[in-house]
Design brief:
Strands 1-8-3-6 form a 4-stranded antiparallel sheet. By secondary structure, it is of the alpha+beta class.
Length: 234
């Protein structure tokens, strides 16, 4: 059953849906099914058919891939206001990662059949999906660029700035707060480095007062992080 208390702004907060008209958002909201997942529950496994996307309203879900040798790479932690599992809606391919609820979580599932039905009725949804995929490709290119061309200090700075923009938007304040929801091992896996090296780099940023502890969060000097993230060549 659709929860009518969820406003259009909830769906429009996702990059995939942000440019859509109210009439399209209305169809998406009516098609979405409210769901909940207790802590420890696996929402879907890698290789399973991808039949729906998830839009979280509360909780935290880990997205990860594993190897036959038992190694695991955490791709990200999805929290309230995040969307995941959307790739399978576009191509019908199996899941590329495993999703596990780390704490009790709630949200909405939008089925692929409903997404395709709405897209046939509303061409603007297909156009929005195309723009979304292009943005994802650009983000992937930037991530590969980070790994290949930048020092670890620059990669950490770029990671912090990217994460800040996920929370605060592109127009960042001078000293925003950042609450990291993944540990240093996960950050190291994303950046292609070891945990001790990431730890030393973060400590160096703290020693230079570029980032500061503020309760459970980090206060970040955006201007200084940008200087490190985009070094000039001599």
């Amino acid at each position: 059953m659709v929860n009518q208390s969820i406003p259009y702004e909830f769906w429009r907060s996702f990059r995939l849906f942000e440019a859509l008209e109210d009439s399209v958002i209305d169809k998406i909201a009516k098609a979405a099914q409210r769901s909940q997942w207790p802590a420890g529950v696996t929402l879907f496994q890698r290789g399973e058919p991808g039949e729906y996307l998830v839009a979280l309203t509360s909780g935290r879900v880990r997205l990860a891939v594993g190897s036959p040798q038992g190694k695991e790479l955490v791709l990200r932690h999805a929290e309230a206001g995040d969307i995941f599992g959307e790739m399978s809606l576009f191509d019908g391919a199996p899941r590329s990662a495993e999703a596990t609820a780390l704490i009790d979580s709630q949200g909405y599932k939008l089925a692929r059949r409903d997404f395709e039905r709405i897209a046939r009725q509303e061409p603007s949804l297909s156009i929005a999906a195309m723009h979304y995929l292009c943005r994802m490709l650009r983000d992937t290119t930037e991530q590969l660029e980070n790994l290949a061309l930048y020092t670890l200090e620059a990669r950490v700075a770029r990671f912090l700035l990217f994460t800040l923009r996920q929370t605060h938007g592109d127009d960042l304040p001078s000293n925003p707060l950042l609450l990291l929801t993944i540990n240093q091992s996960d950050i190291a896996a994303v950046l292609g480095a070891s945990r001790p090296k990431v730890n030393r780099t973060l400590q160096a940023l703290r020693d230079a007062n570029i980032i500061k502890k503020s309760g459970d969060a980090l206060e970040c000097n955006v201007a200084l992080l940008q200087n490190i993230a985009n070094p000039t060549l001599d």
